[in-house]
Task: structure prediction
Amino acid sequence: MVAPRVLAHLLLAGSLLVSACRMGRMTVPEGAEKPWDDMDRGERAAFMAQIVLPRMREVFQAFDPERFADFDCTTCHGKDAKARGFAMPSPDLPVLDPRGIYRKHRKDPAQHAIADFMWKEVQPEMGRLLGVTYGPKGRIDCATCHPHDPAPR
Ligand code: HEC
Ligand code: HEC
Result:
């Protein structure tokens, strides 16, 4: 018998490995007229406001309504988002340690569930919404949003 908690760790590690390649493809995202890469800054900001923010708010609030009760542009982009031109990664997001496929975060009982959520829901949904690839070597991965220490390979 494997304890449920151990099993959960194994499943997460497994899903991390299985998804250790690029997923998705480049498309014109739903609700847009051109690919994300071809949008100018104003078009990107408008697309974020109309499509990305409402959808990602739903996703985050379904995971943890209390923690993400206030969910807006700054949740992802940080408090000085505007002054920084909405550049990602955001210096205000938790710094991640990517070693051992994010072992530190997967093994931390306080972070295990949210790390799993990031992998299975946030990263893929963000990629799909923008019509870009996601996962390691994809356009959207953990390092798109989070600062890393040490730097990812
Ligand atoms: C769920 C997280 C999330 C939320 C919420 C969010 N964004 Fe973004 N945003 C991103 C990511 C990730 C990128 C970078 C995508 C890429 O790699 O091209 C981005 C990129 C951008 C860009 C393009 C920046 C550049 O350098 O070209 C702008 C502008 C932007 N966001 C504005 C906004 C605005 C305005 C809001 C609120 C209405 C918002 N974002 C909400 C995640 C988010
Ligand atoms: C679209 C942007 C985005 C992507 C991609 C993303 N995250 Fe996150 N992550 C966030 C946001 C937003 C939070 C919540 C920060 C807060 O509480 O204000 C967060 C929180 C976390 C936390 C919680 C840390 C803590 O101290 O509580 C962990 C762990 C985490 N992310 C890991 C990951 C991993 C691993 C990946 C890649 C599989 C990833 N994230 C991809 C935006 C992102």
User: Anything to note?
Assistant: Residues 41, 44-45, 48-49, 52-53, 56, 73, 75-77, 86-88, 126, 139, 144-145 surround heme C (ligand 1) (CB under 6 Å). Residues 20-145 form one domain. The mean pLDDT is 91. The radius of gyration is 16 Å.
